[in-house]
Amino acid sequence: MKGKMTRKHIVELADRLFYQRGYEHTSFADIADSVQISKGNFYYHFKSKDEILAAVIQLRLENTRNMLLKWEDEGERPEDRIKSFIYILIANHADIKMYGCPVGTLCTELAKLNHASKAEAKELFSLFRTWLSRQFALLGRKEDADELAMHLLARSQGVATLVQAFQDERFIRHEVEQMCDWLSCMTSATQLTHESGGTYERDDSGT
Amino acid sequence: MKGKMTRKHIVELADRLFYQRGYEHTSFADIADSVQISKGNFYYHFKSKDEILAAVIQLRLENTRNMLLKWEDEGERPEDRIKSFIYILIANHADIKMYGCPVGTLCTELAKLNHASKAEAKELFSLFRTWLSRQFALLGRKEDADELAMHLLARSQGVATLVQAFQDERFIRHEVEQMCDWLSCMTSATQLTHESGGTYERDDSGT
DNA sequence: ACTCTATTAGGACGATCGTCCAATTTAAGA
DNA sequence: TCTTAAATTGGACGATCGTCCTAATAGAGT
């Protein structure tokens, strides 16, 4: 009973530390210090560091799913929901400025480490991709919904990277404005540019 | 005499390894194995691992400057030069798919490590930013040249991140097309949207 | 009060990290 | 050819890493 709570604490604190310092650069001692438990206690709850990472990713997946559901409840119109996505850049501007995007930086790191959990981390991106794609489809852009989702995902990733590098929050606001303009153009004009349609290959087979 | 060559080899191989595996995840043993020298020889040329990183960044800065100069020679019109920038996504698609953008991933990692050389790494971004800004100014967009440069930089960063995550090269081509379209619209229309002008704060003071 | 399981503490372990050094080899100049 | 500095070697070092193990403690159910 008590154990489940400390397990939860471990995952939450590890989540934060992995985000702030990166996975590899976060040691067991760091997490143990944060949670204020002995290093040995740890291995009662998790057999390895990889297992903690897996639990952290599962937590993030759950939180992300809840967030997306909340956005769907809060916003009636698809364009409002998409704006909810765009505005996370502003809502989390302080963290992004210091640590970048939690999803992007994790995926990048795990890819370089060739870590076993990189596929699960990618799933975080997939959640946003699928959700955004559905919203664009509801906007009447069924043909290129996936392209639009990827496009928006890429732009927010790029903004997060540059904000962290240049430490400039004004850039966020400016780019968010442009993304909203881009979204507005889409909703007013009834499907202007239906370029070469189709969907990008979705390699969800895992590697 | 001979020593300068091995020093060069060390920097070149370290450059590649830092890109592929990340700075922290690359050990001395890894570099020594690649260069095929003894681990001790290393410290004749560099006093620490940080010093190797500094040398690697200097090498990248030099290579980047040369590349930008080459682009300026090859392309007469500014729009052609900007296209040279956009097309690095295609030229380096294989590496980007596996390891992401060399500049973005390095800056992100050094920021999380809070490494002393993060300011120098940021300078890599600044080179592109300044160069692109100058090209946009030549296009007659003096007012918002810096915003446009940052915008394009962000978009290619985002593309690189997602390509690495999703392992999909078709996404590169599609986004490159869109960036070129965006550029064409800019050159044909004579300054359509001159929004709130100015330049983002350039924090080049270093931290 | 007692038992038994769940939980925690703290240290030992081998491996690997970045760093450093003494000894040796190489190569260039006189 | 001899001298001397440049270059290279291979191993020792302390620290830290992730992992594991045993003993101590806590708490719920009888």
TrEMBL record, chains A, B:
HTH tetR-type domain span: 4-64
Record Pfam families: TetR_N
Domain of life the protein comes from: Bacteria
Keyword terms of this UniProt record: DNA-binding, Transcription, Transcription regulation
DNA-binding region(s), residue ranges: 27-46
Keyword set includes DNA-binding: yes
A GO molecular-function descriptor: DNA binding
UniProt entry tagged with the keyword Transcription regulation: yes
InterPro entries in UniProt: Homeodomain-like_sf, HTH_TetR, Tet_transcr_reg_TetR-rel_C_sf
Protein name in UniProt: TetR family transcriptional regulator
Organism: Paenibacillus rigui
